[in-house]
Amino acid sequence: MSSEADVKFEIGHVLFIDIVGYSKLLIHQQLEYLEKLREVARATETFRTAQREGKLTRLPTGDGGALVFHTSPETPVKCAMEIARELKKHRELRVRMGIHSGPVKEVTDLSEQGNIAGAGINIAQRVMDCGDAGHILVSKRVADDLENYAQWRPLLHDLGTCEVKHGISLALFNLYSDEIGNPEQPKKFRMDERKIDLVTPTVPRKSIAVLPFENLSEDKSNVYFADGIQEEILTRLSRIGDLKVISRTSTQRFKNTAEQIPDIAKQLGVATILEGSVRKAGDKVRVHVQLIDAENDAHLWAERYDRQLDDIFEVESDIAGKIAEALQATLTGAERRAIAAQPTKSTEAHELYLKGRYHWRNFYALGYERVREYYEQAVALDASYAPAHTGLSLYYSWAAANAIFPPNVWPLAEEYVRKSLSLDDTWPETYNALAAIEIYYKRNWAAAERAFHRGMELDPNFADLHSHYGMCLAYLGRFDEAIAQTERSLQLDPFYPGTNVHYGTLLFFSRYYDRAASQLAKTLDLYPDNPAAHEYFGNVCAQRGMSYEAITHWCSALNLNGRSEDARVLEQTFKAAGFDAAVRTLGERQLEELDARRARGEYVAAAHYVFVHIKRGKLEDALALLPKMAEEPDWFALQMRVNPVLDPLRGDPRFGEILATVSLKETSK
After folding, report:
1. H helices within 340-444, ranges in order?
2. For residue 5, with 0-12 CB atoms within 10 Å meaning exposed, 13-18 middle and 19 or more buried, which class applies?
3. Is 623:655 a contact under the CB 8 Å cutoff?
4. Are 287 and 215 spatial neighbours (Cβ–Cβ below 8 Å)?
């Protein structure tokens, strides 16, 4: 077997091609379009000549491929132009191309098939990624070579630089003429659409993101402990009103990243970054932290703590205090007490709490049940541990609010939240759980709003509280206030999938369909495998009359949720009989699924049946179950006033009568 050093590199002239929007096509269209693109490429004179002379290597990809010419820099350009001319006959094929000359090597992969790799391939793909449909982009290296030929000079248009992965910037040229190419400036040169647009254009000087701490413990299962220390330091900092503090869910995006500190800070909208590591061994712990000025990547402050495990709260408090001092933040007496708090004296209870927090991030996925077990064990060891009681309340209240747990768990959620408040009425998360209990279970909006406001007073950087408050305002039709609260949440937690989906949902409820589509497109650009984003995008498209796009997104959601057979049937029915028939068929299949779940003894909310009957076109069946939907204490009942999916029922007088039963206790603010 040859060693890596024996592999010979050579300069390859690479044409990288892909189909724009390929992943959003229906499955049969993906296959058809890809085959048509291959036919077009193979039919070009440049392709046939190079293949005949043995000067061409092909590298297929899922949505296109790379052609590596072992000839001259002109060859991939000629091929691209020939492909572009032919594609004018196939307007449905939205293709972009990128060209670069660089080192490549032929390798043998695990299946013993010939393949090709190297920087030449990678950079060509990055060049292509900077373009939109119709663009033929070339790297500066290729442009410099082409400048020697008079025929190419008029076709080359300098674009400047485009930032790609890992902080690399590429100098690019757009190749076009009156006949081929796309003369429009690529979107990448106007704005980076893969980054969330923060609402505030300027970065506050007193702003910070705490990046995930590195787990240096020999026992790698201690990752929960490193994550927990990072989160608790962040939580202490977030209590300081003079600081802007980014939520943990957004900073997690940069765990083990190769991105540079200035780039991370720019994406998060902060001026400073805290990095750290944790080493835990027995009852000893070492925490190392460093505060960095993101603009010039300079260290502002660093410290190493070697302590006993039972001193960990003191370490967290000291770190938070030193950061506040370094950023010249003004602290009130209450804020000083908050960052110095020690919620338990039991190290065992604290470790169990951190394990519960770690599993809380599963959000009702496999392993979520362990949240309750860890919190219960923590409370058993220290009955006065308020955050653990809050954790148990959140466990029950959020699952009940989302109709995952049956309504009979609400009293448990209330019991735990009242206990937590009796122990410590300054813990911000408790008020999020309390707000959920008041609005979904008690239907007391005035009390829920008081809880939201109190939580925000205690922690002005609590992104999830703003997001939750925004959604509740939407239930009441207070859309401008709802949007403002959700945008504030996105400032504090720009990369959290839940808040991004919620914002799209809120805009959908507000009937701002264009804005909802734009927001959900951004979300899917960040998280293409998020089924909820696909489902709501499908709902938005359906309301806009975009049947094909709605089916595409619904199929994606079904596939991601493990319902691939439903996706296949939905797509086939749409192709054969149209949109309405496809939706009815999906409704029938989903009805069977709901009945099977209920037969197994699982809790199924009435709202799920109402939505399925609307899909089936059985509006009488939906209206028959609407009183039960209105009665059940979850978020589906409260969205009856605003959810466009329920519009087919609104013309019936019974709908208004049932909606009137969903009454919330309101008082003037």
Report:
1. 347-360, 369-381, 386-401, 410-423, 428-436
2. exposed
3. yes
4. no
Residue 49 host element (H or E): helix 45-52
> Each residue of 455-467: pLDDT tens digit?
999 999 999 999 9
Residue 166: C-alpha distances to residues 299, 400, 496, 647 (Å): 22, 42, 21, 47
Backbone φ, ψ for residue 245 (5° rounding):
-125, 125
Supply the pTM of this predicted model: 0.69
d(CA 488, CA 472): 15
Q: How far is CA 448 from CA 29, 526, 569, in A?
A: 49, 32, 43
Residue 669, both tokens: 């603010």
3-class DSSP state for residue 427? coil
- In sequence order, the 6+-apart residues with CB closer than 8 A to the CB of 202 are none
Q: What is the pLDDT of residue 193?
A: 42
One-letter amino acid at 531 equals: P
Residues forming beta bridges with residue 175, ordered by sequence position: 156
**Residue 443 has which token pair?**
């239907």
Number of Cβ within a 10 Å radius of residue 661: 12
In the block, which residue shows the tokens 């490193």?
226
Contact status, residue 333 vs residue 324, Cβ threshold 8 Å:
no
Residue closest to 455 by CA, chosen among 435, 480, 473? 435
Q: Is 608:592 a contact under the CB 8 Å cutoff?
A: no
CA separation, residue 242 to residues 184, 325, 359 (Å): 44, 11, 31
**Sequence letter at residue 67:** L
What is the distance between the alpha carbons of residues 357 and 354, in angstroms, rounded to a whole number? 5
Q: Which of 637, 638, 635, 639 is nearest to 626 (CA)?
A: 637
Sorted by sequence, the CB contacts under 8 Å of residue 564 that are 6+ apart come out as 558
| β-bridge partners, 303 | 289
497-509 helix and 463-475 helix, angle to the nearest 10 degrees? 20
C-alpha distances in Å from residue 249, one per residue of 16, 166, 209, 575: 35, 21, 11, 40
Between 7 and 401, name the one with better pLDDT. Answer: 401
Helix (H) or strand (E) run with residue 234 in it: helix 223-238
> Pairing relation of β-strands 10-19 and 64-69?
antiparallel
Based on the number of CB atoms within 10 Å of its own CB, is 109 exposed (0-12), middle (13-18) or buried (19 or more)?
exposed
Distance CA 524, CA 271 (A): 27
- Parallel, antiparallel or unpaired: strands 95-108 and 10-19: antiparallel
CA distance 353 to 374: 6
How far is it, in rounded angstroms, from Cα 641 to Cα 656? 9
Cα–Cα distance between 255 and 214 in angstroms, integer? 9
Positive/negative CA dihedral, 182, 184, 187, 190: positive
User: Which positions ≥6 away from 574 have C-beta within 8 Å?
Assistant: 547, 548, 551, 581, 582
Query: CB burial class (10 A; 0-12, 13-18, 19+) of residue 638?
Result: buried
Q: Predicted confidence band at 190 (pLDDT cuts at 50, 70, 90)?
A: low
Give the tens place of pLDDT for each residue, 29-60.
778 888 899 899 999 999 999 999 989 988 87
Query: Across the chain, what does the average pLDDT equal?
Result: 88
Assigned token pair, 83: 């492909």
pLDDT digits (tens, 9 = 90+) for 19-30: 988 777 777 777
